[in-house]
């Protein structure tokens, strides 16, 4: 049933996503062409247009995915989704896979497009395409490898956490207890959970005595509490706190399990 | 056919099926249409059709054969009775009206004889006219 | 096969805030019947169907579908036609048939195409180009093309013209499996007098009375429609 559900997502969303992508790429290509051909006035405009396409891709795709989750689960299409003889775990797995996959693909595409803009800018400034590649390679080589690996892992975990978080926000926010709020349910749930997460993350960062030296060479087991005055005074603290990391790592399974529970026990179509 | 929803529909079906057997619409010895087909034709619940057909079996107008289905009786006396039975209500109504109009029996019968050829006997509307 | 009734509902309750949509409803329905579910607006008809279909997880009491609480097992047996347009606007009837084939093991695609054609709908047109009545017919064709053990039809005839109503009722009569249970909720009682063989009258979230349609007619000496009108003119007994 998981495969059928995934196929269903693809069947319904392939066309709108591809047409959105087609328009975005056409605008992007036009913008880049204007830059490379050094068309007076239009070249600047093309640069801006290409950057806007990147931003729209980064924001538009997750917005679309969030909207589709809501309409297919709790809009009128939910009347089909929830009579399908699938386990709630299969339903959730299909939704999750689709959202995470499409979003990851759109982020990779955004990166590629950003690289394209960088190439075009280098060429416009009198360089060659290989200059951009060389600059990127140097930057990557000079970067702290631990920090780089950590950063990529953080982005990957962060993406999954965001998918789980927004799934939870909609699922929990559409429970019966928030019925009187209507669509405000998910909004309120998102806002309150955002505040809670800020407080919890800050508390964990301060209270869990784990950190790393600025050059990522060794772990520091000390409370960040003593470093706070420096941080507020805009000076560099002597180590980077990592207490927030467990919060992120715990948040992901909490969101997933809570959403599954909500789906099984509290689904209430309106 | 139109039903009077104020009366049990299965009884109306029994009357209708009896009429069909009496008039030979369902010929003697032939298979009675299936429940499903009758339900679709009449726009009626299959269980209601089933109940009416069971009543036909009880009155022996139809005979169920275990595997082959359900057949109209071959008993011509029963069929003739069904035919008369179907007309009886109309006859009763006519007699009542004729009495109300102070006709005597001879005059009433003469009127029937005079009107007999008005309208084709094969015209299906004559059956409904009887009920007026 | 289990000996449990097709639908067994015990002390079913469901509240919307202070309002009880279902208030201790008890009802047992056997397979092989077409049951008319009557009641004024707010009497709990739709809520009852939604719980049995598995769209409302929050309720008190019990609803058993051939012995199963609402869940994947029951959903495989229940074909629900909601009074909602549940298909995406962007698909055609042909795609919708393919979707149903993917999701429901008991779905008969050939039957669905035959029904859609019989109802006069072009299967290639996207649903957003169809009228409301045409969309309802597509949904009915899909729901009736499952070889389900229970069909729940919520107001299947309210939004369409009388000619289409005739076709739809005939479809219900001819397409369902004689061993299945069909529950039709409607306020257009006169239209389904002859189609239903049992009736359930709901009031304020409970069963007011239920029984064989012809027995009710014989006992009260009136049509179900009249019975409904007379019953619901009286104020609610408290």
Structure described in brief:
Chain A has 270 residues and is mainly alpha-helical.
**What multimeric state do the chains show?**
heterotrimer
Biggest interface, chains and residues, is: A-C, 28 and 29 residues
What number is the mean pLDDT of chain B?
A: 85
Name the CATH superfamily assignment of the largest domain in chain B. Winged helix-like DNA-binding domain superfamily/Winged helix DNA-binding domain
Round the Cα radius of gyration of chain A to an integer and report it. 23 Å
Distance between the termini of chain B: 16 Å
Shape of chain B: elongated
Q: How many β strands of chain A by DSSP?
A: 3
**Helix and strand succession of chain B?**
HHHEEHHH
Our estimate of the beta-strand percent of chain A is under 5%
Order of helix and strand elements from N to C terminus of chain A: HHHHHHHEEHEH
CATH topology of the largest domain in chain B: Arc Repressor Mutant, subunit A
- Total tally of structural domains of chain B: 2
Strands of the biggest beta sheet of chain A: in what spatial order? 2-1-3
Radius of gyration of chain B: 17 Å
Helix content of chain A: over 70%
- Name the average pLDDT of chain A: 89
Q: In what order do the strands lie side by side in the largest sheet of chain B?
A: 1-2
Instruction: Give the fraction of residues assigned to helices of chain B.
Output: 55-70%
- Under the CATH scheme, which architecture of the largest domain in chain B would be assigned? Orthogonal Bundle
Terminus-to-terminus distance of chain A: 25 Å
Describe the secondary-structure layout:
The complex is a heterotrimer of chains A (270), B (132) and C (238).
Chain A: H1 2-36, H2 42-74, H3 78-81, H4 88-124, H5 129-142, H6 145-173, H7 184-207, E1 211-212, E2 219-220, H8 228-232, E3 240-241, H9 244-266
Antiparallel strand pairs in A: 1-2, 1-3
Chain B: H1 9-23, H2 35-42, H3 46-58, E1 62-65, E2 69-72, H4 76-100, H5 105-115, H6 125-130
Antiparallel strand pairs in B: 1-2
Helix pairs in contact in B: 1-3, 1-4, 2-3
Chain C: E1 7-16, E2 19-29, E3 34-38, H1 45-53, E4 60-65, H2 72-75, E5 78-81, H3 93-103, H4 109-118, H5 132-144, E6 150-154, H6 162-175, E7 181-185, H7 189-192, E8 198-203, E9 206-212, H8 213-220, H9 224-233
Parallel strand pairs in C: 3-7, 3-8, 5-6, 6-7
Antiparallel strand pairs in C: 1-2, 1-4, 8-9
């Amino acid at each position: 049933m998981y495969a059928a559900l995934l196929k269903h997502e693809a069947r319904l969303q392939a066309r709108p996503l591809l047409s959105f992508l087609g328009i975005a790429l056409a605008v992007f290509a036009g913008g880049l062409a204007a830059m490379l051909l050094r068309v007076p006035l239009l070249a600047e405009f093309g640069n801006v247009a290409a950057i806007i396409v990147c931003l729209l891709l980064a924001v538009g795709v997750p917005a679309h995915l969030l909207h589709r989750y809501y309409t297919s689960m709790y809009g009128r299409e939910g009347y089909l989704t929830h009579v399908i003889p699938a386990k709630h775990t299969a339903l959730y797995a299909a939704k999750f896979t689709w959202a995470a996959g499409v979003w990851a693909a759109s982020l990779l595409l955004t990166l590629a497009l950003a690289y394209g803009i960088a190439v075009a800018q280098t060429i416009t400034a009198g360089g060659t395409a290989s200059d951009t590649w060389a600059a990127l390679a140097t930057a990557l080589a000079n970067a702290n490898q631990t920090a780089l690996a950590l950063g990529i892992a953080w982005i990957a975990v962060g993406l999954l956490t965001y998918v789980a978080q927004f799934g939870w926000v909609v699922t929990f926010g559409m429970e019966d207890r928030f019925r009187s709020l209507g669509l405000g349910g998910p909004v309120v749930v998102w806002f309150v959970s955002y505040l809670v997460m800020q407080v919890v993350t800050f508390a964990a960062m301060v209270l869990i005595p784990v950190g790393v030296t600025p050059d990522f060479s060794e772990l520091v087991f000390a409370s960040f509490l003593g470093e706070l005055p420096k941080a507020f005074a805009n000076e560099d603290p002597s180590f980077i706190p990592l207490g927030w990391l467990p919060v992120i790592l715990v948040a992901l399974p909490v969101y997933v399990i809570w959403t599954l529970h909500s789906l099984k026990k509290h689904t209430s179509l309106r | 056919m139109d039903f009077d929803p104020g009366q049990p529909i299965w009884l109306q079906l029994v009357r209708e099926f009896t009429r069909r057997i009496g008039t030979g619409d369902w010929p003697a010895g032939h298979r009675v249409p299936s429940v499903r087909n009758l339900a679709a034709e009449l726009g009626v619940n299959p269980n209601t059709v089933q109940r009416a057909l069971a009543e036909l079996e009880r009155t022996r107008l139809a005979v169920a054969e275990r595997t082959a289905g359900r057949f109209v009786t071959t008993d011509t006396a029963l069929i003739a009775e069904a035919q008369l039975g179907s007309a009886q209500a109309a006859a009763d109504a006519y007699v009542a009206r004729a009495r109300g109009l102070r006709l005597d029996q001879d005059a009433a019968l003469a009127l029937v004889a005079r009107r007999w050829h008005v309208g084709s006997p094969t015209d299906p509307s004559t059956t409904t006219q009887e009920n007026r | 096969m289990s000996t449990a009734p097709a639908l067994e509902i015990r002390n079913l309750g469901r509240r919307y805030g202070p309002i009880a949509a279902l208030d201790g409803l008890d009802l047992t329905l056997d397979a092989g019947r077409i049951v008319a579910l009557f009641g004024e607006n707010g009497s709990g008809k739709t809520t009852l169907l939604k719980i049995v279909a598995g769209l409302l997880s929050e309720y008190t009491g019990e609803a058993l579908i051939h012995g199963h609480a609402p869940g994947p097992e029951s959903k495989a047996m229940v074909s629900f036609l909601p009074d909602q347009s549940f298909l995406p606007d962007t698909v055609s009837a042909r795609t919708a048939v393919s979707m149903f084939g993917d999701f429901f093991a008991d779905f008969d695609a050939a039957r669905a195409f035959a029904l859609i054609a019989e109802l006069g709908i072009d299967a290639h047109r996207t649903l957003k180009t169809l009228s409301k009545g045409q969309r309802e017919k597509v949904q009915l064709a899909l729901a009736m093309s499952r070889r389900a053990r229970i069909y729940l039809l919520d107001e299947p005839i309210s939004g369409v013209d009388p000619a289409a109503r005739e076709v739809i009722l005939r479809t219900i009569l001819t397409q369902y499996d004689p061993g299945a249970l069909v529950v039709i909720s409607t306020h257009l009682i006169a239209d389904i007098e002859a189609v239903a063989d049992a009736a359930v009258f709901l009031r304020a979230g409970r069963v007011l009375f239920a029984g064989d349609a012809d027995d009710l007619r014989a006992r009260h000496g009136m049509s179900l429609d009249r019975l409904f009108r007379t019953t619901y003119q009286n104020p609610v007994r408290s």
